[in-house]
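Ticket #4471: complex job returned nothing on first submit. Input attached below:
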Amino acid sequence: MPACPYIILYERAETNRPTGSQLPETEMDMLYTSYGFIAFLAALFTAYYVVPRRVQKPVLLLFSLFFYASYGVLQIVYITFTALTTYISARLISARKEANTAYIEAHKKELSRDEKKARREAVKKKTYLIMSLCLIANFGILAFLKYANFTIHNINSIVSLFGGRGEITFLSLTLPIGISFYIFMSMGYVIDVYRGKYQADKNFFHIALFIAYFPQLLLGPFSRYDDVKDTLFVPTKFSGRAFAFGIERIIWGFFKKLVVADRVLIPLKVLIASPDKYPGTYVFAAMILYAARIYADFTGGIDITMGISEALGIRLKENFIRPYFSKSVAEYWRRWHITLGDWFREYVFYPMSIWGPLTRLTKKTRPVFGAGFARRFPVYVSTVSVWFVTGIWHGASWNFIAWGMANCIVILISSELTPLYDKFHKKTHLINKRPYHAFMMLRTFFLMGMIRMFDCYVGVGTTIRALVSMFTEGNWGVLVDGSMLKLGLSAADYIIVAAAALLMFAVSVAGIKKSVRERLAAHPVAAFATFASLALVTAVFGVYGIGYDSSQFIYTQY
Amino acid sequence: MDTIIDILTELHPDVNFDMCDTLIDDGILDSFDIVSIIARINEEFDVQITADRITPENFNSAEAIWALVSELLDE
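Support reply: We reran it on our side without changes. The output follows.
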């Protein structure tokens, strides 16, 4: 089993396979950056707006299932299991709650307050059991498929450490595409129904579409049922403006992906593959390249997802708000992969922070360790847990666990230092100065860049050595002596990347007040000319075609 | 309501909780505070504030927190 997620990622990239899967290759595979996918999209848009509106959404579900089937029929089995267990559990939970509410309402005069409470408690226990069974079944499947081989790898390592010879054979497992996304989304729905946020949807087709809607399952966002129900389940009237907006965003996504993300991947692969050959400033260069790569790749992919949805008249929640403009790591995580953070906060962090046993333990230890400890203890335990789970969600490897813990440590230290920062800012008034804001943004950018390197190198030790070498090697000359031109990119390529990065930066800045698309909307000819040019630039300068196999999106692997 | 104000004032003595209705929006209460407040409320009022009730709207002011507690007491 390869230990490094980066290697997994790019080994897969070589063959355009969904990461984690060992599916047989078929010509039907549809990644966003394949011609097959473009044809699929054209067929979907045509069918969606040509058929009578009442069958629009069934058509969308059929296309989504076809999308999954293109990765193998087994994909449909997994997603159907999740859809069925989600639908049945939610309905059972809702039915019990409704029946109880109706009974209490009908007998409110005869029932005492305690009797009503007892009935509610009894129903709560039953519905909790139903929810738990659904969660265990689905998360169990995910955990087994995703972590069985990681567990075997660790058991084998421990056994060999103590001189054991026996080795457990790795399992041949197929991780269905998008499973980490759709299981989290559907379990969020079941938890919400259990909590009484809304009632279970009685229409199985709605649940199937919510779970299977294909654009969000490659990279996210993690949609919430109540966020999408108003546009996902109702017929869409064609709107030229919405459709044009969607296509514009798709083009912007392809630009980021093909011109920037896949271009910087070329030197990045070389630098990461030989950490001993490329230490010091090369690590710094890799850090910058990877920052460009992951931003362009992930936000580009989400742009395509959002663009497809806009063109179909479906509203999804935004997943990014200018993350590289963040002034702290905590703020970065409120701007990067927002829907993932929301999910973990709502379904892991807060429930765990106020979890009965933890609260009782805090109360018991308060007299011994004091109020400061009591205030911190539940939040620290929950923060560590959330970052551990976030890390391992990203990949079954120690690299990702180290990555999660590094984020956690920085956030907790920052939180502890907040009073000190506040005093400093009060005294110096720097907080009102723009250059200081720029400094804070750069500080966060480099800090996150360093943490992110745990995604890249083979092993945690190698990553730490590489990061340390950045400060000890002192080989800054490699940036100007032509060494960077020996990594697979020419000077012209670097100029293209720099120009594209500048454009992304300008679009981000302009978007603070109003998005570029909205600014151009009043001038249809200028909008058409701009996006037609962007499409042309992508076609000319995009990294694809013979010898350039476009790689998959990074987040597809999760 | 007075108990709520007392709990909040213990955490941030410098804030006027009678007036402020942007406790979350302005970052006056952080996650540490929210968790402490919930633990104290559960203890003082013998109610159970569950995770789904932790929304900015329910914690933006002392009045909103009191409304949440009142709702739970009525259940």
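The radius of gyration of chain A is 25 Å. Closing as resolved unless it happens again.
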